[in-house]
Amino acid sequence: MAEPEPPRSNVPPTTVGTPAEPVAALDAEALARHDTVLVICAHPDDVDFGAAGTVATLVAAGASVTYCMVTQGQAGSSDPHAKPADIAELRMAEQRAAAAEVGVSDVRFLDHSDGAVVASIELRSDLSRVIRQVRPGLVITQPTERNLERIYASHPDHLATAEAAMAAVYPDARNAHAHRGLLDDEGLEPWSVPEVWMMGLGTDLSPKVSVVIDTTDVIDRKVAALRAHQSQTAAMEDLDDMIRGWGAMTAAAAGLPEGRTAELFRRIDTR
Ligand SMILES: [Zn+2]
C-alpha cells in the first residue's frame, strides 16, 4: 500500500533505532507528578500527531493540560481560493474537538501567521504570558532542531515555535524584568518551568530519549483526536494503521515489549 502524502504539518514517527540504554516507560507514580502541563505547538494538529497519546495518559493520571497553538492554522488548506479566516475557524474547531477526545478543554490560540512564524520578541512575550497564566510544571513542545532525515518534522513554524517556547521558559517567563508589561500591567508574576519535553526526536535516538510514554491503552483516543482534524486527515484512509504502526515502531525503538505503542520525548531540565 502506498504511503499517503504526509500532511504539511505532521510530526513524523521516530525511526527504528536501538537506544544505548533503553528507558523504561514512565510509571503511574511518575506520571502523576505532572499535574499542570502546557503544550505549545505551531499549528492545530501538531500536538495530536506528536503527543496526543501522552496527553491522554497524563489527563488519565490526573493532570490538567492546556494547549497553546501559536497560529490558527489559516494556511492549512489545499484550496487556493479558501479564505484564511474560514480555514482558521474550521481548524480551531477541529483542534478543540481533538482536544476533547483526550480530555483537554483549555485550548488557546495565538494569532501569529501560519507559515510565517518567527521566534520574535513578540512571540516570546505572548508565550511568557501563557506560561505565567498557566504556571505549568511541564511544558511539552516541538523540537528546536531540524530533522534532516524527514523534513516534515521541521516545518519552519515548528522550529520557530520551539525556539520561542524555550526562550519563554528560560529566561523570559521567570525574569520579572522581561516583557515588563506582563507584571506591571497584567499582574502576571514570574514563573519558572522546571521541565520541558520535546517531541519528534528523529532517528538519532540513543542519547536523547529520556521520556517514553506507553500509549497502548489510549491509542484509540489518539486516532480519534487525529480524525477530528477532518480537513487534514479525512483523505488518509489508513490513518488508523499508520498511527498504530508509528506507535509500534516507536515502542520497539524504545525497547518496549511487542504489541505496545509509545511516544518518545527528550526531557530537558529547565530548573
Ligand atoms: Zn505543524
Descriptive terms for the model:
single chain; 271 residues; alpha/beta; Rossmann fold; seven-stranded mixed beta sheet; 9 helices; 37% helix; binds zinc ion
Question: What is the element layout, followed by pairings?
Answer:
Blueprint: H1 28-32, E1 36-41, H2 46-60, E2 64-71, H3 84-101, E3 106-112, H4 121-134, E4 138-141, H5 156-169, H6 180-184, E5 195-199, E6 211-214, H7 219-227, H8 230-233, H9 239-253, E7 262-269
Parallel strand pairs: 1-2, 1-4, 2-3, 4-5
Antiparallel strand pairs: 5-7, 6-7
Helix pairs in contact: 2-7, 3-7, 4-5, 7-9
Q: How would you portray this structure in words?
A:
The chain has 271 residues and is α/β, with parallel strands linked by helices. The protein has one domain: 3-Layer(aba) Sandwich (Rossmann fold), CATH 3.40.50. It is built from nine helices and seven strands. Strand 1 (36-41), helix 2 (46-60) and strand 2 form a beta-alpha-beta unit. The longest helix has 18 residues, at 84-101. The chain is globular, with a radius of gyration of 18 Å.
Briefly characterize the structure.
The protein has 271 residues and is of the alpha/beta class. The chain contains nine helices and seven strands. The radius of gyration is 18 Å and the shape is globular.
- SSE series: HEHEHEHEHHEEHHHE
Low-confidence stretches: 1-17
Largest pleated sheet? 7 strands, mixed
Q: How would the global form be characterised? A: globular
Corresponding CATH architecture: 3-Layer(aba) Sandwich
Question: pLDDT average, as an integer?
Answer: 89
Spatial ordering of strands, largest sheet: 3-2-1-4-5-7-6
**CATH topology, what is it called?**
Rossmann fold
* Gap from first CA to last CA: 47 Å
Residues in β-strands, percent: 15-25%
How many DSSP E strands? 7
Helix content, binned percent: 25-40%
Number of domains: 1
